[in-house]
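Shipment paperwork, digital attachment
Item: protein structure file
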Amino acid sequence: MLQKQVKLTLNKTDRLKSKKAITQLFEEGKSFKKYPVRVLYLPVEDAEKTRATFSVPKRLFKLAVDRNRIKRQLREAYRLNRPSLEQENGKKFVIMFIYFAREEVPYAQIEKAVIELLKRLKQV
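Attachment content:
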C-alpha cells in the first residue's frame, strides 16, 4: 500500500508577507503562548492555505545574526510539524510566531513549544 508523500517545504506562498494581513492579525488576532514562543493567529475563510511568519524582537536581541538564527529555528520547527495542522484540520489561518524569551534556548525546546502551539491551534 502506497501512502501519499507529504512535502515538508516552506515555500514563498506559505509565508505571510502582506502588511495589511499582519496589521489585521495584530488588531483582530488571538494569541496563546508556550515558553519561549507566542503564537498570534487569525482564522481566514477564503484562503487557499495557512500562511505563517516569524518574529524575534530587536529589543531582546540586538545582533541580527542572533535574531536570524532563532527565526531559522522557528521556521524549521514549523516546517517539520506543519502537516499535522493541515491534514486534520480544514481551517486555514494567518499565523505569527513571536519569540519572547530574553535568552537563546536550545532548538529542542523551541520545537517542543511549536508542537504544543500547533496542537492547541488545531483545537480552535
